[in-house]
Please model this.
Amino acid sequence: MERIWAPWRMKYILSNKAEGCIFCQKVAEDDDEENLILYRGESCFLILNTFPYNCGHLMVVPDRHIGEVEKLNESESLELMRLTQLSVKTLRHILKPEGFNIGMNLGRVSGAGVEGHLHIHVVPRWNGDTNFMPLLADTKVLSESLRETYKKLAQGFKAEM
Ligand SMILES: [Zn+2]
Model:
């Protein structure tokens, strides 16, 4: 995978991580718009990445705090894949990317940002996006664009249902 230059991620890497699990915290709250939760399924949910590698970068996350992929039960496994498919379909529809990077980082050494609570990254890709993203390096611009992306995608997910 060609690396996308996303300088705002330094802020994330350098920031002291809050105690507790960010996914467990957000899924327990009921302000999905504020928390950028796009969709809730039976046992998994979709959430936009606050420090994205690209526009529309979202994550598919089981509700349950679980770090090992081999310990997912059958219905969680199914729904993780079902929501990954739904994400690709919706992102394709709304943002018209030309490709995707989809994957999981398990363990700190692999680059997992949230340890102990596994998640699948879905990153839309466009030809030339490695040149485009530095234009969004300003974190204020980024957070505005996140809110806009959230609105567009949340409507998209509703429409796909
Ligand atoms: Zn958790």
